[in-house]
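Try it yourself: sequence plus magnesium ion, in.
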Amino acid sequence: MDMLRITGLRKRFGSKEVLRGLDLAVPEHSVFGFLGKNGAGKTTTMKTVLGLLRADGGEIAVNGEKVLYGQTATNRWIGYLPDVPEFYPFMTAAEYLRFCGEISGMAKADIGPRSRELLALVGLQNEKHRIRGYSRGMKQRLGIAQALLNRPKLLICDEPTSALDPVGRKEILDLLLTVREQTTVLFSTHILSDVERICTDVAFLDQGTAKIQGTLNEIRARYRSEEYLVETDSEAGLQALQTAFPALHKIGKNQLSFREKDCPAADVLRFLADQAVPLLRFERAEPSLESLFMEVVEQ
Ligand SMILES: Nc1ncnc2c1ncn2[C@@H]1O[C@H](COP(=O)(O)OP(=O)(O)O)[C@@H](O)[C@H]1O
Ligand SMILES: [Mg+2]
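Structure, out:
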C-alpha cells in the first residue's frame, strides 16, 4: 500500500505555477527521497500534504485517507520536521518532548517512557544542557524525536541534512534509516548523495512534476547505460586506443569511456588483447543518479 499518494497536484502562487500535476506514490516502509533543486516546490508539496496550503487541483491521500485543506485529521498519521524547526531555547530536550506530548494530547503516562525511548534513539539521552547550546545537528535530531513522538505512520522531514556538516549529515541519514522499521520516511533534499546513501525510492521534482520516480533499483536498471569504462596505466595504450576508436573519450588520467552504440565493447576488448595493453579495469558503468538526473533535466 502507498502511505502517501498524490495525484495531479497543482499549486500556483500568483502567476507562478509551482506544481503542475504532480503525481507521487510513497510505498509503506520506504525511505523516499524527494529530490529537487532549490525553489522546485518541495516545501510547497509537503505543506499541502499537511493541509497547511490549499491546492489548486489534485488529490492527496495519507494512509488511504483524503487530505483536506485546513483540517488536521490526516495529520494524526504524520510526524513532521519542518525545514527550519523552532524550539524553545530555555528548555532541555526532555522538557521539550514533554511539552510537545502535552500540547498534542498524548496520554500523560505515555509521554515519559516514549520521550526516554526517543532521546536514546537520537542519542540525546544524556544531554542535560538547554537547547540554546545545541549544534544544528543536535537540533535536527531533537526535531526528529519530536516528530516521532506520536508514533506516526509517515515521517516527513523537509531538508533535514541541508544545513549540516558531513558528520551531522551522516548522523541524520543513519537515523532515518533506523526509524524506517517504525514508519515510512519521506524526506526532501537537493543532495543526490543523501539519496544514493539511504533511499529505497526516489522522485525528482522538476518543472512542477515528478520527472523520475520509482525504486532506486528499478531506476538504475531502466536507465542502465550502455556506457563502458576502460582503465590502463599505459600512456601508449591509451593513445593507441583513442586513435583506433575515436568514439572513446578520456574521463580521467588513465580512463576512457565509450558507449556500446558508438563502438562495440567486443571490438575494444579484442584490440586491447591484440595490442597487449595492460588493463586495470574494463567494466560497464553503473549510471550515477547525478548523470541520470542531468539527462532527464536536459530533455
Ligand atoms: N507563500 C508563498 N508565496 C509566494 N511564492 C511562494 C510561496 N511559497 C513558495 N513560493 C515560491 O514557490 C516556489 C517553490 O518554493 P518551495 O516549495 O519552497 O521550494 P523548495 O522547497 O523546493 O526549495 C519558489 O519559487 C518560491 O519562491
Ligand atoms: Mg524547501
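One thing you can check immediately is this: Residues 13, 18, 36, 38-44 surround adenosine-5'-diphosphate (ligand 1) (CB under 6 Å).
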